[in-house]
Specification:
Helix 4 runs antiparallel to helix 5 and helix 5 crosses helix 6. The strands form two sheets. Strands 1-2-3-4-5-6-7-8 form an eight-stranded antiparallel β-barrel. A three-stranded mixed β-sheet has the order 10-9-11. The N and C termini lie far apart (about 100 Å). It is built from seven helices and eleven strands. Strand 9, helix 6 and strand 10 form a beta-alpha-beta unit. The chain is of the alpha+beta class and about 425 residues long. The protein has two domains: about 210 residues, Porin (Beta Barrel); about 170 residues, 60s Ribosomal Protein L30, Chain: A.
Length: about 425
């Protein structure tokens, strides 16, 4: 019977498709189980009935059960039992055999405790049980048949404990006392109208083998395990974020440096390593035919000059979150480039942002946008050495950052002629 139950349980496991739930999600648990047991039947019990005799160790019983776990501490179990109870007649040395042809019972099994030892699968579960059953038995004294196929009710009670050896298998050790509620003839055949059954067996949980049993499951131990996994994952994510931030800071410093001092940042410099004093275009490459500019001793900035700059500022737009100038801004920027070439003005470009996002990211974006404007003006013929590009990020607001209009005003590039 044990071999057959093992085969049945393996087939049921094989037919299940393992499923997993997300961390801290709904837990799937197995509630159905089957089992088999064997042990010693005796007319003597802990409640009395005489001393145990050697013949009783030949009184073998065996059975099987199907169980449905309703709550972690409560299950309903349908039991089948048969066997023989051998003893000596009370007044002689004649052997008496009471044979249990079959018995069936339905019992409620109450788990008293669940010892999990910090694992989600319990290792020790003591229990008590009680219910009602019906049985058929024969009785023989010596060679005389006292009765056959006498049926009647009995009340099964018991105590025991289970040992969880894996997620789906428990060792079941128990001691049952069965009280006979049948006819006087049957009662008289059983000393004190009761018999005991000390047994050991195996219980197999049915269903997805990845899921724990409801009766063995320790929610607290499982929660601690999942919390530890969540904490480890968050620490790994934080460590990765810190490494990425350090790498970004290093790359930002490298991009904004000007190793050849030609006025064009490394990020925009397509011709690194130009000799000192070389006139370069907006991409950092030497101009093919640099022109000599006559520097005026006195610089006069008229209202018309300022209007050219104001128009360029009001019409300046970038792609969202980037330093790419939109084409609609080219016309007014071309006028600024012409003004710088004709009047030999110097120009300071100052990029600003609102306080949305990280400060380092805003500093980089404001600097990149100022450098983009400088690069475009130089590409139109302006002298790179007379244009200064600086990024201040969110450090110099001209309006409050608490409103959308204020933040819009703070996102700007200022042009200063001198």
């Amino acid at each position: 019977m044990l071999v057959a139950l093992l085969g049945l349980s393996s087939q049921l496991f094989a037919q299940e498709t393992p499923t997993t739930s997300g961390r801290f999600g709904k837990q799937s648990l197995r509630t159905w189980s089957i089992g088999a047991h064997g042990g010693i039947l005796s007319q003597n019990t802990f409640l009395g009935g005489g001393s145990v005799k050697a013949e009783e160790f030949k009184s073998i019983g065996y059975g099987a059960f199907v169980k449905k776990q309703i709550l972690p501490a409560l299950g309903l179990q349908a039991d089948f039992l048969r066997g023989e109870i051998k003893t000596l007649n009370a007044t002689s040395t004649i052997e008496q055999i009471n044979k249990i042809n079959w018995s069936g019972s339905l019992t409620a099994v109450l788990n008293i405790a669940n010892f999990s030892l910090n694992t989600e699968n319990a290792v020790l579960i003591p229990y008590i049980k009680a219910g009602a059953g019906y049985m058929s038995s024969d009785s023989q004294v010596g060679t005389v048949q006292a009765f056959t196929d006498r049926e009647g009710w009995f009340i099964p009670t018991g105590v025991g404990f289970k040992l969880g050896v894996s997620k789906g298998i428990n060792i079941d050790l128990g001691y049952d006392i069965n009280f006979i509620k049948s006819s006087a003839t049957v009662k008289s055949a059983y000393n004190e109208s009761r018999f005991s059954y000390a047994h050991a067996g195996l219980e197999f949980a049915l269903g997805n083998k990845e899921n724990p049993q409801l009766q063995n499951y320790s929610a607290i131990a499982d929660l601690r395990k999942q919390s530890a996994e969540e904490s480890a994952e968050l620490r790994r994510a934080l460590s990765t974020a810190e490494q990425n931030a350090a790498r970004d800071r290093e790359q930002y410093a490298k991009d904004l440096a000007d190793d050849d001092n030609d006025g064009v940042a490394n990020k925009f410099d397509k011709c690194p390593g130009t000799p000192s004093g070389t006139v370069v275009d907006g991409s950092g490459c030497p101009l093919a035919a640099p022109t000599t500019k006559v520097i005026k001793e006195t610089t006069v900035i008229t209202e018309a000059d300022r209007k050219v700059v104001r128009d360029a500022i009001s019409n300046l737009e970038f792609d969202l979150g980037k330093s790419t100038i939109r084409s609609k801004s080219y016309t007014t920027l071309n006028r600024v480039a012409t003004l710088l070439m004709e009047k030999n003005f110097s120009l300071k470009l100052a990029g600003h942002t609102d306080n949305t996002g990280g400060r380092e990211l805003n500093l980089r974006l404001s600097k990149d946008r100022a450098e983009s404007v400088k690069a475009y003006l130089v590409s139109q013929g302006a002298n790179a050495s007379r244009i200064e590009a600086t990024g201040y990020g969110p450090d110099q607001p001209i309006a409050t950052n608490k409103s959308a209009s204020g933040r819009q005003a703070n996102r700007r590039v200022e042009f200063t002629l001198y």
